[in-house]
Hints:
There is one protein chain. By secondary structure, this protein is an alpha+beta fold. The protein has helices spanning 3-16, 18-52, 73-76, 102-110, 144-151, 175-181, 212-215, 223-230, 250-261, 268-271, 273-311, 313-321, 326-360, 381-407, 411-417; strands at 60-63, 115-130, 133-142, 157-160, 170-174, 188-193, 198-207, 218-222, 239-244, 264-267.
Amino acid sequence: MNFKLIFNIAxxxxxxxxxxxxxxxxxxxxxxxxxxxxxxxxxxxxxxLDGLMLNRTPHVRLYNEIKPSKNQPISLAxxxxxxxxxxxxxxxxxxxxxxYNSKVIIHFLKQDPRIVDVAPKxxxxxxxxxxxIEISGVINGIDVSAEEKLFALSDYIIEGKIADLxxxxxxxxxxxxxxxxxLAIGDIIKITTSKGNLASLKVVGITQIGIAEIDDTMSYTxxxxxxxxxxxxxxxxxxxxxxxxxxxxxxxxxxxFSTKFDVDAIDYQTTNSQFETGSSVRSIISYSVGxxxxxxAGFGIYNILNMxxxxxxxxxxILKATGFSGNDVKWIFIFLSMIIGIxxxxxxxxxxxIFTSIIDIIPFETAALPTITTYPIDYNIxxxxxxxVFAIGTTFIAGLFPALKASxxxxxxxxxxx
Length: 418
């Protein structure tokens, strides 16, 4: 089989039907370009939402949850131990929120090769006092360097610096809380803890995550300040936040650490299941729309090649009469479709990149997301590889059926009819 000759014949047929060829190639170009644009934008949006919530969540969190005692008093009595007992008024066991032996646990976790690092935290409800008004909120006592390393808290600080939390009696508050209490950097905020302790802290920063419920209540201070505020010793820790090298290990390690350290544990998938579901649905929609566009372009190529076969019956008959086999004719039309697919696909990649670049510079300013200035785009080469592979595959299949039909044409009947 002389592929060079077959390729030249395919080029000649394309030039003879140049307008229809361009229309088919434009269909593929449009499908690929829209596929890349949709997928890049949707994944950019998913990454943005992950940054707002999922990336602020530890892969595994160790804590003590308030819950009923597993061993109820009645089950300890020998005569009732094996019976079915119904108890209605046994209160949850008060074992405190502090994690027992927290420093030893943290030291052990830091030696685990599966773990990137560990960030201890103290979470406590407080009242922020503004004159005679008390606003309920939450203070997070954090290890400043560990929190910044694992969760990039400084990305959400719109005023001040996270390093200023290392000063004694300092606090970073949410923007919603700052607006309610008319506070700015350098002001003093008065706080009442759940134990009735009173304290005055200096505002050294303002943070804005973009979720109103968090910005209205959340604040950050150092571990030392939080421990002093609560009147607790230096080993008082309520949460141990863990980031893993391999995020898929989170569910298994959650069970392992919960059993090993006798604490409650929760993984990021359970904590943010709704956000993960939303991201998955958006990705499915974007891929579905893009693939439908490519399939529609494939049908266009199929129709054009089908019409070309009917219009080129004489040429096909002459080719077969001069010694070309049915297999040669088949490959001529496959080359036709592949040329259209590759050309349209390459232009689709180019225009897809241009469209995403244009979207990437469109201003996107909102008070809820101060760190975002333009629409999010994910420039991942995988989307371009998927696009060109699907374009070539679609056009090959679209051209295969007309090519098989052309290979079966009987030249005697065509010439006799003429």
